[in-house]
Amino acid sequence: MKKVDVVLGMQWGDEGKGKVVDVLTPDYDVVARFQGGPNAGHSIHFAGKSFVLHTVPSGIFRDGATNIIGNGVVIDPVILMDEISQIEEMGLDCTSRLQIAKRANLILPTHRILDAANEAAKGKSKIGSTLKGIGPAYTDKIARVGLRVGDISAADFRARYDALKASHLATIANLGYTDFDICAYEQKWFEAVEALRRFTFIDNEVLVNKYLQDGISILAEGAQGSLLDVDFGTYPFVTSSNTLCAGACTGLGVAPSRIGNVYGIFKAYCTRVGAGPFPTELFDETGEALRRIGHEFGATTGRPRRCGWLDLVALKYTVIMNGATSLIMMKCDVMNDFDTVKVAVGYEMDGQTIDWFPYEANDKEIKPVYREFKGWKCDVTKCRSYEELPAELKEYISFIEEYCGVPVKVVSVGPDREETIVRG
């Protein structure tokens, strides 16, 4: 019986999961998204073109691959159909490539308004939501009042929608939020719901396990990053779902014993969008250089990302939490011209040095303890084998492997799918 392999972001998101899934897909029959919503922005570059996927799995461009949106995902029909339309303009038939879980929850137009109303009410304490309605949609899921994809086929779907909408509007009124007009988006929403009917709605927990029984290979694709996990991330500055490997079990309906390889993706440095702790954040020219050279602006929001040195304390934490079997390092080419490169190997907190990611990260001052490396000072984008990489970069990679206890199996040296080194 086959097992599900999992691709995860190991930092605060934006690690490059889209490219990695696109590169790995030829080895898999099925690619399945298992959590998150259209706040995801998975960028893919090939043949001189660039694409950003928000809900559709990143295997959609590979011939022969089946793509599944799992039950752990929350779906905005408008955003999903816009995305599908852009893909189909390339001549690809998404109907034959994409299946959608009946148990996936829907993001209603009023969820987006609730999101904005909640952020406005928080004032300076806002968490930096993308305002896509994702948090309120997950809230309704947990409260057991949400609408799901399978409900689209119900005879009383509109009545269910109207009842939930009325409840949302009452909450919005209580928050004193009036800066919205639901009519235009609601019309587009229902048009998108009708358009979704041409896709196959599946009992994904049944189908995925049958695929495994039949020896069909599956790659599970996570969204956001492990440090944004609703339980183990930097709460409350987190997303609304479980971004760890465990989320693949609940987001697709597979047992923990059915998880195989766990690929942990990280950047050679760190970035974060929105509020929340970031121990290695840089506020100097080095931070600006990382942002400028790395084009560090959100694929979904366009917001500039906060940038800093690689945090190995946080990375080892997520390696352990996910049971990562191998690591994939992205964007080492961004630091081609740096004289020195630093990594955090500990934190100073309350007068002592610690080597774990603490619960108190939100509330206490944390000063990183750095290990410094000599920069590689050359262009690595043309390298196509590990042997071609400069000695300084290989030393950097070896230290990461030693610290985290997991091998770095893939090194990305540029944005294109061809700019990828896979180690034996």
Produce the secondary structure layout.
Blueprint: E1 4-9, H1 17-24, E2 30-33, E3 42-46, E4 49-53, E5 66-69, E6 74-75, H2 77-88, H3 94-97, E7 98-101, E8 105-106, H4 109-122, H5 134-142, H6 157-174, H7 183-196, E9 200-202, H8 204-213, E10 218-221, H9 246-252, E11 259-267, E12 270-272, H10 285-293, E13 306-308, E14 310-311, H11 312-322, E15 326-330, E16 340-349, E17 352-354, E18 367-374, H12 391-404, E19 408-412, E20 420-422
Parallel strand pairs: 1-10, 1-11, 2-5, 2-10, 5-7, 6-8, 7-9, 11-15, 14-16, 15-19
Antiparallel strand pairs: 3-4, 12-13, 16-17, 16-18, 19-20
In short:
This protein is an alpha/beta fold and 424 residues long.
What does this structure look like?
This protein is of the alpha/beta class. 31% of the residues lie in helices and 21% in strands. It is built from 12 helices and 20 strands. The strands form 5 sheets. It has a 10-stranded mixed sheet, with helices on both faces. The chain is globular, with a radius of gyration of 21 Å. The protein starts with a strand and ends with a strand. The mean pLDDT is 93.
The parts where pLDDT drops under 50 for at least 5 residues are: none
Portion in beta strands: 15-25%
On the 0 to 100 scale, the average pLDDT is 93
State the end-to-end CA separation: 25 Å
Provide the spatial order of strands within the biggest beta sheet: 9-7-5-2-10-1-11-15-19-20
Profile the largest sheet.
10 strands, mixed
Rg of Cα set: 21 Å
Shape: globular
Number of strand elements: 20
